[in-house]
Specification:
By secondary structure, this protein is of the alpha/beta class. It contains seven helices and 13 strands.
Amino acid sequence: MLKTGIYVDGENIRLCGGYGMRYDVLKKYVAMDDSVILRANSYVVEDLEQTEKDDEYRRKLYRYHDVLRSHGFKLIKKPVQRYVNSDGEVTVKANVDMDLGIDALLQSAHLDRVVLLSGDGDFCHLLQAMQNFGCRVEVIGFLNVAKRLKETADFYLSGFMIPGLLPTGENGSIIRGYPVNYWQDKGYGFFRHLEMDEDGLHEKEVFFHHSHFEDEIATEALTRSSNIFEFRLVPSTVKDGDLMATEIRHTQSHVVI
């Protein structure tokens, strides 16, 4: 069994496309690879000033914190700090990098595998230090993921691709995938998506036709695997027994910085 730790840069994930992420699905995914989860930390921020005066903010925030705890995550809170510059402008900051970095580095000495959820390139040196301890370090991100972070990780996976990790349609009927082939002259191609079961994640490819897009889509978007599309699966009209994508729409691009 791999001794595994999960470290979630909560504010980065929330602001970069991961709002509403399901922590129970995250743990299910991480535990698939013959892993026992020893640490599960989520680093969150709280505006104490707003907590005191805004009942609705406080209720929503603490309800969210209760959900995380119910899924076995330890919360490490960082209070929002306000700074006033020489022009009287107020800047709000709440950086959890130091807390996450210290915890992950110290605890990785007793782990075999670390899963970091963030897109922040400042974590590259942290990843290298944990790798020097002998840890396998994996990164899950959504938008604005630093290219150097993806390259430093032993494995990178887009959070958009993990089935159920983000809210989808009723009964999980919406699938997310990216184009792997597209023939412009013929107007069709294939999306690659992931399916998750007790044995792990499995790559699948599904046929699509340009006529099944809900909106007009630029050709170049269908030639880049960095583009994420949402669609539903229906019985194929081309080949009996197969499925095809329909109600297709372009949702996100994996912007790297």
